[in-house]
Amino acid sequence: MVDEGATAESHGRESVHREAVMERWLLEMVREQRRSRRWKIFFRLLFWIFWIVVAAAVAFMVTGDRESLVSNRVGVVKIDGAIDSRSPASAERVIRGLNNAWQGSSTAVVLQINSPGGSPVQSQRIYDEIRRLRSTGDKPIIAVIEDIGASGAYYIASAADDIYAAPASLIGSIGVIYSGFGLEGAMEKLGVERRVFTAGENKDMLDPFQPVNDTQRRFWQHVLDQTHDQFINAVKNGRGDRLSDDPELFSGLVWTGEEAVDKGLIDGLKSVDDIAREMTGSAETTDYTQSGDPLEQISRHFGRVAAQYLGIDLQAEGSPVRLR
């Protein structure tokens, strides 16, 4: 016979065990939910703190704490490399940096230039913005040329209140250039026929596979001369009677910083540090140079490497007329 009492007792123990297991499981679920809620709250707080810090940083960069941080520092904007619409020294970036420096520094704005020149359009835009800013206040804009400040770079510098350089800096090259190749003879030797269809008799002018006739040559020389005249007038308006009467001043030659002082192209031999110390007693400056997107910078770097490997001159792209 089955012991009914023992069986009931066994079932009772099993029931108590199941209840205990269920209770522990429920308690663990509750604890897990509490832990999960705490982590959710923590990450939400972290998320909002991050964006508050980012917003505060952006607001600070836009408005600037002028009174406490940069009001007594010289604001610096760098023009480095070829002046081109797609380069770090494009008019858009330089002008944006200039305006930020103008708003952020009550002492002076310094253009730190190290450029062989580039696009006349980009150079003229920056020149005009410097002149506009100068007309709106009594804060000086000073150009400091480092290794080289030639052609379009000097075009820009001539808009400043004063220009300084190092004794060995290269300065000037006030001229305009267009360069290309004539490959029509090579085409004939290779037996290759060039097929170009145009509407307008001069539409294929400067095509390297077509000869240039005298009329086209005179027309293109007129374009270069007109651009050169604009360059000369800008320099004269910027430098005024500080320029010497040397007939070679606008011939495209370059001079050292030491020679440029005598010719009135610059006002003296000083560095950015020298100017900052004279104005504030400290060599510390605030850099307002506008840098591009990191991915854009990486892409540009690989582009330069590839161009060097293939022997391509990237500076030749864009406007065919160059101030260099």
UniProtKB/TrEMBL annotation:
Family that this chain belongs to: Belongs to the peptidase S49 family.
Q: What is the phylogenetic placement of the source species in the record?
A: Bacteria, Pseudomonadati, Pseudomonadota, Gammaproteobacteria, Oceanospirillales
Q: Does the keyword Ribosomal protein apply?
A: no
Give start and end of each Peptidase S49 domain: 138-282
NCBIfam families cross-referenced by the UniProt entry: SppA_dom
The protein here is known as Peptidase S49
SUPFAM superfamilies hit by this protein: ClpP/crotonase
Q: Which InterPro entries match?
A: ClpP/crotonase-like_dom_sf, Pept_S49_SppA, Peptidase_S49, S49_SppA_C
Name the CDD domains for this protein.
S49_Sppa_N_C
